[in-house]
């Protein structure tokens, strides 16, 4: 502070390739140590929730403290199954991309508890505005694996009719919005949906997800402002997986205050939660949903997790972060943690887990075989290119109709 | 001279100006430690430090807005927007601020920002990694808009853009980063080493903004195009056997109208081609201008080959992209007219 010159701070991650992973920057509260306030608490009285870390599973894999949602073991086994399915599905699709059979893929490795726990805590009528790592939500809400694969293949069964990159799913039936590909744009859309729900006098709420990096986008701030002004019934989730491609969460401002605290200035309560603790994520989501449904307005939830894999199949994380960083992440792996909890409680075993993994692999493989029947990138049946002119408008204008005719003429020529 | 692909040429251009002018700074997503998702800034942070090659938050409006402020305060910022498809959150800063700062302050303030951004399709990028929004920027008074089609021009024009006191939006057709592309996706990729414009001087040189280039001379038809389609046009012309003159516009604004009209007056026929959607595309401006300058020399209406007026579909990339087949059909149609 002796210097009289201004100084530019350049955020630096604690470890780069070849260095020892260091997560000492994460403020970790012991499991069970954070109070659970009533859902109608004033934001100013619960600011601690945005600094502390809500955790339920302790070091001994026991569920402890006021946030323990006391979920039935049967339901927890279901949750484990969904998370595992998400992982197995991603592994298979990643391999498939590596074989050149789909153009692109993004996996949720390490973040599965986000979609599964939050999806389970929401009601079917609640609308989800996901980011591109929320594939678990689609699975959980009944979108078939084969239909997700067909989307990735852009084949004749593709829900997007070949118009979107792989993983940019949507499902009106399942109340899950169309994934954009641009970052954070879904956040204000979720707030608007929630405002409409209140205008229409319904008790459905909206939930949206984006990454730590995307909180820098203006749309994040637009969403918070509108949500705060109108007290919209919405849950705004920041999945802090520590990395936005090559830039760590410090480049989105995570060095100063937790992302959960971003709404405090607007009066939006924030909850910082162990994103790899399915029980804790479930509990805080239920709390926020309850608050929203009772007219308490928005909640910002920061899910502290780790992006276990590459950003996408186009990325090589070994160029910017230590290879062993995931294994050093203090909040571990959400699947392993729930598994150990169930084993500790006597409701699961290594054998059952192995058998389930094999069963899910078989299920995914069967879906893949089925999906390919509707066409692959190289083998038909192929979508009809004439359809590319549909859905630009509700009704096709004459200018597009004539372009369609000309395109077909060119394609049939030669 | 050295052999460079377009990425290396852009990197070399950045290196040369950063070395020459300590006021040149780079900012953008993943441009620093990582060196950019397309590697255009690889090694520059190691060489010039973290205060000159700055990793930015994911906020295109913030990147462009901050670049404007840096430029006002004496720096010469080069902002990278990771994909042209992501530029829209920064659009207000470009249109309302960057483009008009000099005008509204009667020349007292200006900001010499260059915005580099990869554009165009042909890489299976779907609707959010394939767009060509150059016409939207060309429509804005107060910014220059350019799109090189080869490594030599990319480096020379980038240096000109950075040294220009006017703001420049510098589009990089990413399909041809690693080699020229003739529009036929079934043919194996060709590297820049096979192309004369892959020969790039290692040091400082400029290619002025506002000059088009005749890349192939001919007598029967003028094809006016830019970016990836320069290579498609050349291949298509050859395949049809039409003696076409191919002009690489290079600089969308300012536009070198003289080179265009000289050619069209000679050939009497003109086909305008771009990858972007047709309706109100830049081809409309080209056609209007050429029609005005060459009306009494035209033997046929000016033709257009362009992207369809739809978003860029992932599955139908090659039916959407105005490739060799469509270009050939356009050329043949031009020769049949009148």
Helix content of chain A: 25-40%
Biggest sheet descriptor of chain A: 5 strands, parallel
Quote the CATH topology of the largest domain in chain A.
Rossmann fold
CATH superfamily of the largest domain in chain A: Thiamin diphosphate (ThDP)-binding fold, Pyr/PP domains
Q: How confident is the prediction overall: mean pLDDT of chain B?
A: 97
Radius of gyration of chain A (CA) equals: 22 Å
Order of strands across the main sheet of chain B: 3-2-4-5-7-6-12
Low-pLDDT runs of chain B: none
Task: Write a compact overview of the structure shown.
The complex is a heterodimer of chains A (414) and B (338). With 414 residues, chain A is α/β, with parallel strands linked by helices.
Protein model, in words:
The complex is a heterodimer of chains A (414) and B (338). Chain A is α/β, with parallel strands linked by helices and 414 residues long. Chain A folds into two domains: 43-383, Rossmann fold; 385-414, no CATH class. Chain A is built from eleven helices and seven strands. Chain A has helices spanning 73-98, 112-121, 135-140, 145-153, 186-199, 218-230, 278-293, 325-328, 334-344, 350-373, 398-412, and strands at residues 127-129, 206-211, 234-240, 243-244, 247-248, 270-274, 299-304. In chain A, the strands form two sheets. A five-stranded parallel sheet of chain A has the order 1-2-3-7-6, with helices on both faces. In chain A, strand 4 and strand 5 (247-248) form a beta hairpin. In chain A, helix 1 (73-98) crosses helix 2. Chain A starts with 72 loop residues before the first helix and ends with a helix. The mean pLDDT of chain A is 97. Chain B has two domains: 2-200, Rossmann fold; 213-336, Rossmann fold, CATH 3.40.50. The relative contact order of chain B is 0.12. Chain B has a seven-stranded mixed sheet, sandwiched between helices. Chain B is globular, with a radius of gyration of 19 Å. Chain B has helices spanning 6-20, 44-48, 60-72, 91-98, 101-104, 134-138, 151-163, 229-240, 257-267, 282-294, 317-320, 324-336, and strands spanning 2-3, 24-28, 53-55, 76-80, 114-119, 144-146, 168-173, 199-200, 213-216, 221-225, 244-248, 251-253, 270-277, 303-307. Chain B starts with a strand and ends with a helix. Chain B has 338 residues and is an alpha/beta fold. Chains A and B meet through helix 11 of A and helix 3 and helix 12 of B.
